[in-house]
Write a structure and sequence with these properties.
about 180 residues, alpha+beta, five-stranded mixed β-barrel, two-stranded antiparallel sheet
């Protein structure tokens, strides 16, 4: 049986059950990269659930967050904040009756999520669509997102692959050097 954890993921703090792709030396509070239905996300482990009856999982824990990941997360946060300010300005300019609560960019850099209070209109969808496209290209994650989606390299973090899921194998080191070059 694979390790299973309760983990908190996303800016809205969703708590779900996640199965580890490979055995990981983790404990409560560990930050990990996980694959969810939305994409790759950073999660905080809340505890293991091996003693709980098996059930549906919400995603897969791929590996522990590395120092290279932290550099990438800082860049994501900066662009996320820029997207928030740009969206708030456009909402004000167009006098839309909604409140922007938060903007979230997933770890894979390919998904930007806007959270609003109010009615979703075609105008609002147009604004968020334009902003998502603009900020994805600003972060320039298109090529990097492909390697991250594979967990750092081909099949890294999976039973089928030779990847270690801890950024120590050649596949992971390749992705780490890709992320470092993206920071320049």
């Amino acid at each position: 049986m694979r390790q299973q954890f309760l983990a908190r993921v996303g800016v809205m703090g969703y708590v779900g059950r996640f199965a580890a792709a490979l055995p990981l030396p983790v404990s409560r509070g560990s930050r990990v990269i996980c694959r969810t239905e939305r994409g790759l996300e950073v999660a905080e482990l809340l505890g293991d659930v091996e003693k709980v009856s098996s059930g549906e999982v919400d995603g897969t824990v791929l590996r522990i967050v590395t120092p290279s990941d932290d550099l990438l997360l800082a860049r994501i946060e900066k662009h996320r904040d820029d997207a928030y300010r740009a969206c708030a300005l456009l909402l004000k300019e167009q006098q839309l009756d909604v409140t922007l609560m938060e903007v979230e960019q997933l770890f894979d850099g390919a998904t930007l999520v806007f959270y609003f209070l109010g009615e979703t209109t075609a105008e609002l969808e147009s604004i968020t669509g334009r902003l998502a496209e603009e900020y994805e290209s600003k972060v320039q994650f298109r090529r990097f997102a492909e390697s991250v989606m594979e967990g750092g390299g081909p099949d890294c973090g999976t039973d089928e692959g030779a990847g270690c899921s801890l950024n120590g194998c050649s596949s992971c080191l390749l992705a780490t050097s890709c992320s470092a070059s993206m920071e320049k």
